[in-house]
Structures are given as C-alpha cells and as structure tokens.
Amino acid sequence: MATVFENDEQLKDALKSAIVEVLQERKDLIRAVFDEIIEDIALSRAIDEGISSPKVSREQVFELLETTN
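RESULT FIELD:
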C-alpha cells in the first residue's frame, strides 16, 4: 500500500523515523559503511604517498620482502 504525504513536513518526519530505525536496528550495516569509508580514505592516502615517493625497481621490492621474512 502506498503512503501519500500531505506536505513536506510529513515526508521529512517519515524519513527521520526511517533513518533512526536503521541506526538502531542495523548497527552492523552502519559499521560496514564506516569501515568501507575508512578503507577508502586509507587507500587514497597510500596512493597519494606512493605517487610522491621515489621509484624503486621490482628487484628492490622483492629484496626488501625477502629480508623481512
């Protein structure tokens, strides 16, 4: 059944209620969204750092990896 809102205030209240319900009942969903946001920020920073860092050869990378194992 479709709900018809008589004015913008009713629509606004319904949206607020729905958002509050999601925040209360689906904390796992909210956490997953924030986890994705944090990962995206970290990846973006790593890319920026990589772009501005000096270039190294493939051999140098593998040499470093071998010494850490």
